[in-house]
User: Which sequence fits this backbone?
């Protein structure tokens, strides 16, 4: 007995008095080829991918390859001149929360990283704190994108707007990646 015949018998036994017992239904099932099943599975996977994309925030795709969340957080810390102890600790100082929020905001737009993976790279135990800090940055951008931040909030970027700080952080990420690529090329003799 072939595997299909075995499966056909099990289906027929499991669903007695159902539509599958009607003449021709099981024969129709048998006529479905492996290629048809693979095509159906591929179509279903494509539909699921489109469905998932409809819930994801838009991301800027101007980079040849995505930076890592660690590269982004290092650039944010350097741009703001933030204290690493405060950034990775449980502190709620204005500059630490701004730095974490910028890291979350930029990571979601410059990478394909999920909230849990961003939280892990930031030393957080829960992704909801990352989502909350990102939401604060988004709200600040909606409400007053050109309002200057204080030195207490933005460290050495005090007096600059949130929009300017985001652009500088992006530029810092790209500059660090360019330097790393050049150093890797020089080390490999390229």
Assistant:
């Amino acid at each position: 007995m072939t595997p299909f015949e075995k499966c056909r018998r099990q289906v027929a036994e499991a669903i007695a008095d159902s539509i599958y017992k009607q003449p021709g239904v099981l024969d129709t099932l048998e006529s479905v080829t492996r290629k048809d099943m693979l095509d159906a599975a591929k179509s279903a996977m494509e539909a699921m991918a489109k469905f998932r994309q409809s819930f994801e925030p838009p991301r800027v795709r101007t980079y040849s390859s995505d930076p890592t969340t660690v590269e982004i957080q290092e650039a944010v810390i350097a741009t703001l001149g933030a204290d690493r102890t405060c950034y990775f600790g449980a502190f709620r100082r204005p500059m630490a929360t701004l730095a974490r929020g910028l890291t979350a905001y930029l990571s979601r737009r410059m990478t394909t990283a999920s909230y849990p993976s961003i939280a892990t790279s930031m030393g957080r135990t829960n992704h909801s704190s990352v989502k909350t800090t990102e939401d604060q940055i988004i709200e600040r951008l909606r409400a007053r994108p050109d309002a200057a931040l204080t030195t207490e909030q933005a460290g050495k970027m005090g007096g600059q707007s949130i929009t300017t700080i985001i652009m500088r952080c992006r530029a810092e990420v790209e500059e660090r990646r360019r330097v790393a690529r050049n150093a890797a090329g020089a080390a490999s003799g390229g």
